[in-house]
Specification:
Length: 200
């Protein structure tokens, strides 16, 4: 039996235990090395000023998630083909992204993500999110998309202490591409399994 799995991966067959969801997929934007270093420095300063104890996100993992495609029991070739086909159809010019706020998400979560955010509620990154989302739906992946709205953010650390929203930076970069990323659930390494350039 083949096909694109629903949210959370394939359903268990009668009499069989559900498969472990080991593989995570998402589309994301990554800053260039220089910008990643600047963000890491900003995060370290924020951590010191607020007396936080949470571990900083390594600079190679700093990213902005566009669309999360879920956790799955392995990498389904049909899912990968559909995701790549959807990405390849997205047409958009390169654009600048800049974050000028920092604060915590998470509400009652024990470890709250401290994130960079933007005051601009309709920056070009929102249009990329809309176009990619529409293309994913046309490829039959709409059921994997849980986001009904989009708040661009970049997580710099997790901490039990909440950081109130405040001005920061601004820090940003020229977005020239977006990527499909694979990671193993519970493990820190990211692997880029697809990349698509935006028009210059």
């Amino acid at each position: 039996m083949s096909g694109i799995p629903g949210p959370g991966g394939q359903m268990a067959l009668a009499g069989f235990a559900p498969q472990a969801r080991t593989d995570r997929l998402f589309f994301a934007l990554f800053p260039d090395r220089e910008t990643a270093s600047r963000i890491a420095g900003l995060a370290a300063d924020l951590r010191a000023r607020h007396g936080l104890s949470g571990r900083l996100i390594p600079r190679e993992r700093l990213h902005v998630t566009l669309h999360f495609l879920g956790d799955h029991p392995g990498l389904d070739p049909a899912l990968l083909d559909a995701a790549r086909a959807a990405a390849a159809r997205v047409e958009m010019a390169a654009f600048d992204i800049a974050f000028d706020q920092v604060g915590s998400f998470g509400g009652q979560r024990r470890d709250k993500p401290c994130v960079l955010r933007m005051a601009d509620g309709d920056a070009p990154v929102h249009e990329l999110w809309r176009r990619l989302g529409g293309s994913l739906r046309r490829e039959g992946l709409g059921r994997l998309l849980e986001q009904r709205s989009f708040t661009p953010h970049l997580t710099v650390l997790y901490d039990r202490q909440a950081v109130p929203l405040q001005a920061a930076g601004p820090v940003g970069w020229r977005v020239r591409d977006f990527r499909l990323v694979h990671s193993m659930v519970g493990r820190p390494a990211y692997r880029c399994i697809g990349g698509w350039k935006l028009a210059s």
